[in-house]
Design a protein that fits this description.
The structure is a single chain. With about 500 residues, this protein is mainly alpha-helical. The chain folds into three domains: about 110 residues, Glucose permease domain IIB (Gyrase A, domain 2, 2-Layer Sandwich), CATH 3.30.1360; about 150 residues, no CATH class; about 160 residues, no CATH class. It is about 65% helix and about 5% strand. The C terminus is likely disordered.
């Protein structure tokens, strides 16, 4: 467990090749993400052995050190301070950082071309658009859940309107943030992407008719905003490549707003709205018709998506379902994967009593796992051991099947906001049967996932050599080292 972020950052820096080898620094909920100029200069074994490091991951674009929620932000801040101090101490000339960044980008591009498939690349780019929004989604989701709880209990009626307005304001303008990040991800001017996407949520679109239908503010949601900003980026690049400098300053921004804006109003908003409706219809059909099977598959396969970092690509679908139905029915089922992971980690903790280091890791990562942050347990426990990762997926499948079964019976379980899962999802639960019934089904799914993950791991998740016997196999008596009382004297 990390106690001093500055000491951890100081220990990490030389193991990733030193300041000169780092071209970029960022972080998400659990990972320190580094851009490296030369991957071969990283000492992987020493990094994994560093106290507090739960694992390392590569996605072809960045080298990621898994540290866990909360602490990762403080370590990143300390890491950036060390880089700044080194640059100042060596009086790095202007342009040095840019040169290293270009070199690192070239190396990453070659690595990505060798290892990345088009599908994984597309999903990862979509994830990069939404990952920066996660802190706001979590914060607004928790506030929205608190507002809903106070409303149901009829407490503090003077305060609940304000608590409702705070998260609603962000969700009403999320299209602007999506447009900003889309343009940034695909090489455009972020503010232009946000400007074009803003038309999706503008109240005045009610005066526009497309395909014989009067548009509504927010129609198409984040899907329309993403498509609008992507088109704006293409138009901007086309203009900058063809217009001379004097005209580029005036015409490129104007054309980037005008052309994609008109296409968004007269085509993309309508098409994205139809796509959003289709997503909602498909999700409802999937759970009401094949709920148990769908839950089993989704709950069982979600951990591999988390391992690859591709689970963030599902955020547009969750957001679309919330806009269409008021809640996403997929998030509670996918949250069962975390329950299976917790059960698997508990079984490892019980069986590997001799492994003090691993048990310490489990104790530090388990609270985050109970709150739905599974990466510390994935990279610190189950994935390094191998089999527990598979048995954790079994637990997730069982929990997902439990929730899916009740969806088939007419009790849908949804989440009113994106972000938390595990026990933190309870304040955000929503469904047709009322909060109490919804919470009961969701809690039953968690318990099922815990139990299935624990039992599958306890009996099948650990190789024979990983567990030390507590008795001598021939005499069936406790070994001398395990008997109470004084230990036998060692031979001289």
């Amino acid at each position: 467990m990390i106690k001093d972020p500055h000491s951890t950052a100081a220990a990490l820096l030389p193991l990733v090749g030193g300041p000169a080898n780092v071209t970029s620094v960022a972080h998400c909920v659990t990972r320190l993400r580094l851009g490296l100029a030369d991957r071969s200069r990283v000492d992987d074994e020493a990094l994994r052995a560093l106290p507090g490091v739960l694992g390392v991951v590569e996605d072809g674009e960045s080298y990621q050190v898994v540290l866990g929620p909360g602490i990762v932000g403080r370590v990143t801040e300390a890491f950036e301070a060390l880089l700044a101090a080194d640059a100042q101490a060596h009086h790095a000339p202007p342009g040095t950082a840019d040169a290293l960044a270009r070199r690192g980008a070239e190396l990453r591009a070659r690595q990505k071309a060798r290892n990345a498939t088009p599908l994984k690349t597309a999903l990862r780019r979509v994830a990069n658009i939404f990952v920066p929004l996660i802190p706001a989604l979590i914060g607004c989701g928790i506030v929205a859940g608190l507002a809903g709880l106070l409303t149901n209990l009829r407490w503090l009626p003077g305060l609940t309107p304000a608590l409702t307005a705070l998260p609603a304001a962000f969700m009403a303008l999320i299209a602007v943030f999506v447009g900003h990040n889309t343009a940034k991800e695909f090489g455009g001017t972020p503010v232009l992407g946000g400007a074009v996407a803003a038309v999706v949520v503008y109240p005045g679109v009610t005066k526009v008719t497309a395909f014989g239908v009067v548009l509504a503010p927010g129609q198409g949601g984040v899907l329309g905003a993403l498509a609008a900003a992507l088109l704006a980026t293409r138009v901007e690049k086309w203009c900058r490549a063809r217009l001379p400098g004097t005209l580029d300053v005036l015409l490129t921004p104007a054309l980037t707003v005008l052309v994609p804006g008109l296409v968004t109003l007269y085509a993309l908003m309508y098409a994205a709205g139809e796509a959003a409706t289709a997503i909602g219809t498909a999700a409802n059909w999937l759970l009401t018709t094949t709920g148990a099977l769908a839950g089993l598959v989704l709950g069982g396969l979600f951990l591999p998506l988390v391992m690859l970092g591709l689970h963030q690509a599902l955020i547009p679908i969750h957001t679309t379902l919330i806009e269409q139905q008021g809640h996403t029915v997929l998030l509670p089922i996918l949250a069962m994967a975390g329950a299976g992971q917790v059960g698997a980690a508990a079984a490892v903790y019980v069986r590997l009593r001799h492994d003090t280091s691993l048990r310490t890791t489990i104790r530090s990562a388990l609270p985050a796992g109970l709150l739905g942050v599974g990466e510390p347990l994935i990279y610190g426990v189950s994935l390094p051991l191998g089999r527990p990762f598979l048995t954790a997926c079994v637990g997730g499948a069982a929990g997902g099947a439990f929730v899916g079964l009740f969806a088939m019976l007419g009790t849908d379980v949804g989440a009113a906001a994106i972000g938390p899962s595990g026990w933190a999802l309870f304040p955000l639960l929503a469904g047709g049967g009322g909060w109490a019934v919804t919470a009961g089904v969701y809690g039953g799914g968690l318990l099922t996932g815990y139990a299935a993950g624990f039992l599958a791991t306890f009996f099948f998740g650990l190789p024979d050599g990983a567990v030390r016997p507590v008795c001598d196999p021939e005499k069936h008596e406790p070994r001398p080292a395990d008997r109470p009382g004084p230990r036998p004297a060692s031979p001289r």
